[in-house]
Amino acid sequence: MPLLTASQDEEEVLVFYTQKSPHMNYENVRLLKETDREATFIKCFEGSNALDFQLVSELGYRLQKDAECEYVIVSNDTGFDAVVRYWTARKMPVSRLSGKECMRKLNHRKGLTLNTVQSEREAPNPNEAEEVPEQTDRSLEQETELSVPDLAAAEVTSTSGMQQNAGEPDREEAADARNRQIGEQNDTTERTLEQTENIVKNLCRCIGKDSLADFHNALVTFFGEEEGKELYQKMKGSPEWSLYWAGLPDCSQEEKFAIYCRLVFEVEDTAEDCPEDFASFLFKANGKRKNLNSLRAAMQGHYGKEKGMKYYSLIKTHIKIMNRM
Length: 325
What we know:
single chain; mainly alpha; two-stranded parallel sheet; two-stranded parallel ribbon; 4 strands; 59% helix; globular
């Protein structure tokens, strides 16, 4: 709903779903009826990864018809990143945003709108001959300059989903910096540097330094493609992080599951905390974890159809990593 209500007139929202997709609650149905914008709902055939294949087929079809538009896949499924790399290597405007990244961009857009309204309110009356001091522009530039710590650098660069033209001034970065300050007051989903470090440290407890491929994949899954890669590169060559990793006490696999599951619920900003028995249930469902369909059925059987599907949607992109912890 936030994506639909924040979309512009020239933008189109397509929702791919199956009979087993989570159902909308009444509040979202009401909002959907009240908004002037419309989404195109595409019901997909069911099967293993069937929805993904149909989404990618639609993407290819639309790229052939119109390669000038920008196409953004909004999904937490990192499997789509191979599709993104395939098309970007062919100079096609395709990208993926996780749900978290999508919310950041929407809040960034909302901030830009607020700034525009504020500027219009504060704009001098053209009928009034008031002189504007020369240093105003400079002081505005100083306001927008932020000192970004190392770990936060990846977070800042990843908030820009649109490609910026090479050689274009850094006005967008400056505006982004200002809007991040606004977001700290209005957006509870914005991560601080401390929260980012906390996530990374907990991932270190779950995934050893001898499993760098899994650690890289976990960072990308939690933070998105760009930010996850940047964090990984910073940590990979950092003596400080190597020492931190080496000093960590050993954890049992069950303890790692508890830490990791709690992280998933915290990072995804769900409306509820991780159920007390969730990590234990997932750990004991060893045989079910080998097959996503079996896992989904087991979770729906244990937590009920609606909640089971919700929890399955949260955890499914992490299962391969967890199976190797």
